[in-house]
Amino acid sequence: MSTGTEDFEELRKLLKVKRYEQPPPGYFNGFSVRVMTRLERDSRSTPGLLDRLARTFPWLKTALRLLEQNPIGAGIFGVGVCGLVISGAAFSQIDKPDEGALVLSNPTGSESVDVARFLTANSSPGPDAFGQSAALFSASNNASLLFATPEPGSLTATPVNYIGR
Amino acid sequence: MIDPASEKAAGGSESNDPAEVPAKKTASDESDLVKRARDGDMSAYDDLVRRYQERIYATIYHMTSNHEDANDLAQDSFIKAFQALKSFKGGSSFYTWIYRIAVNKTINFLKQRKNRAHMSLNDLDFNAEHDPDLVALISDKTPRRDAGLAELQEKLNAALQKLSDSHRLVVTLHDVQGLSHEEIAKIMDCNIGTVRSRLFYARQQLQAYLSDYLK
User: Fold this and answer.
1) Which positions 32-61 of B are in contact with A (Cβ < 8 Å)?
2) What is the CA A116 to chain-centroid distance, rounded?
């Protein structure tokens, strides 16, 4: 491979045209002023959310630039994020039926009664964390009362004082 | 557009030649300006901008063949350089560093612009009409004797835009701006062999594109 200048002498002469290309007269007189003005303006303005995030996480800027330069990569990334969101939503729906069945069947279903009975049967007779015995809750342990519609005025609230017990 | 004396100074070439003493002084001035600018002295940074604005603008302009784009990118390069000044360790000269910033910004811009290349050329300096090499090219040696300088300028820019970004950059820095292979290798962060090989292939391609004007 020859890189001798004599091979491209004519081309180099032709390329001299580029050296004569000049910006409009006086362009460079105001160039540095424009740069300094922009710098001052930037220093006065508060950084945006993206800028603040990019300062905290420098890799974020690189990642965004890469995505910006590579539309296919950005598309794949977008599809991946959507996939994660959809699969997350789908998995959360799979877990819900058990909870939903309990809640929905509570008012009338027999299953809720079974659960209540189970809780009553397995309740510990010993004192709880506040030193109250299970007997205090015996009335409310009745499953039929738990889900029965209370009569108007039958619900009363009694203030409880835990100090000195 | 290029001042070889200041270029040598900015390039930081080491020599005991007494003629280069002012060059070393300029280099020390430069490091002083950089230090002051890093400490927030805006007038020092203004001096740095004035020192390199023409060369940075010219490099970007020759890469984009568009004055408006070159104007925006040159400003952006100096702003980015100021913001990143704290990270400048002085391992290379400020000159090489600002060049790298400008070149990277330009190449990123060109990647995005790819499909909407649009030329907005600067006017030729009137001295071009008196350049003996150019006069010979447009009158005696080309088969198209009526080709004017403006047409030649347009064809040349169109041919340059056909080159890949890295090939165009090497031709711009070496054949238009007059930088040495070593300086280009530092700016492009590659070895000198790569610069030489890119220059060779770029010239070969240009010669093919501009064959009408070179025979």
Assistant:
1) 42, 45-46, 49-50, 53-54, 57, 61
2) 38
CB burial of B31-70 (b: ≥16 within 10 Å; e: otherwise) equals eebbebbbeeeeebbbbbbebbbbbbbbbbbbbbbbbebb
Beta pairing, strands A21-22 & B123-124: antiparallel
Partner-chain contact A11 B74, CB within 8 Å:
no
| Residue B111: count of CB within 10 angstroms of its CB | 12
pLDDT tens-place values along chain A, 165 residues long: 444 455 688 898 889 888 889 899 899 999 999 999 999 888 777 667 777 777 777 787 778 878 877 888 889 989 999 999 999 988 887 765 555 444 544 445 455 455 555 555 555 555 554 545 444 444 445 566 666 676 767 667 777 777 655
Nearest alpha-carbon partner for A7 in B137, B207, B170: B207
> Measured between alpha carbons, how far apart are the two ends of chain A, in Å?
100
Q: Is 0.90 topped by the overall pTM?
A: no
